[in-house]
User: Fold this.
Amino acid sequence: MEHLTFIDELDKFGIKIRSTNCENQTREYEIYGLFNESNFIISKDFELSWKNKIYFGKDEALTSLLRKAIDFDSWKHSWHIEIKPENYPKIKDIIQRKIIGRAKEIDELMAIYFQLHHEIAKDSEKTFMDMANY
Assistant:
């Protein structure tokens, strides 16, 4: 889906996208290997590198980062889609669908949270009124 369509879809849930990537800021992504060992991908100004390349040498940093994103849920897309430039549009679509799915979950969680907050406030008000009538 086109980027603006994607942004409009998220807007339906009241979610605005703002990147936390800033110039000259370093961000680390933890990546787990086959035997649950971990390493970090370092991102600075959209340049990616391994924190410990020798330890995790097989995949390129971008390949591992994309694999992490498309495998967030139980369905492991990376087992079925080769991570290569020709598949980037398909990978982008998978990531967008995951973000939209989480936006729906956040929307529902927020509604439930505010319902709970209302119930707590109502109970607190009732308790306060009971104390006032004592």
